[in-house]
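Dear colleague,

As promised, here are the two records you asked about, laid out in our usual form so they can be pasted straight into your sheet.

NAME FIELD: protein one
SEQUENCE, THEN STRUCTURE:
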Amino acid sequence: MNTQVKYTGSALPGNAEVVTLYATSDATTGGRFFANVGVKRFALALVNDAAGTLASQSSEDGITWTTISSDAVAASAANAENIYDFWVEPYYHWRLRWTNGATPQTSWRVAMVMSDERGPLV
């Protein structure tokens, strides 16, 4: 099972803007969402023409967050995407955040999918 996830954040993140790409702590999903629906992995395909930082974070209460991983992301090459794969199965709450660098985006496309596969998606 793969389920696409719609991105609803900024159309073009600006200078140092922090954007939540996805979070289980919002009102529509709630805690243990991934375990409740059998999701094990979360994949992201990102087209960005300016650098930024991508952070995967977990929380027990949806308020206090711990960073699992943080990656400096360079601008994606022409006609290419930056691809990321996250193991999300064990987390009560999980979110994926983008912190834009000093240059606002002029090209920005976010594609996300959840999967019940345990092995890496990419």
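NAME FIELD: protein two
SEQUENCE, THEN STRUCTURE:
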Amino acid sequence: MIVGLLIQSPLLIIILLLPTAIYEVIRTEGKSTKAASIILLVVLVMEIFLLIFNIDFNIAEFLGAEGQWVGGYWLPLGELTTVGPMLMAVLAIILFTRTWGVYTRWLAAIIFFTSFAIIYSLDPAAFQQMLAMAVQQGSRRIR
């Protein structure tokens, strides 16, 4: 019942993720990790704004590009509401790989997996695309 409610309500998932993102900003100390955590929090707040005011904007059409490289990871572009959680997932990967603290790594992992839940609740097709990209990136890193 609770899982079904969460899957149907991306705004609820995002609001529940806010304390984690805020604590990540507090915990990070390095220049790149502090910047990544702050950007992640800003994206999260912007996502709330986009969902509350039901703003639909296709950033891929606006930029005339299918995607963008962010921190060495390919970020597919599309509707702004789905690009936000994808960017959050990429930033969480950056935080996980560049931070030393156990707690900050766990926070980054929580944000990463929750970003997938947000994407799934917004657009299951975009979720499949993001999952395929994550598997591809993971297999590249393992080799």
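A couple of things worth noting about protein two: The first strand starts at residue 67 and ends at 70. The CA atoms of residues 48 and 84 lie 10 Å apart.

Best,
R.
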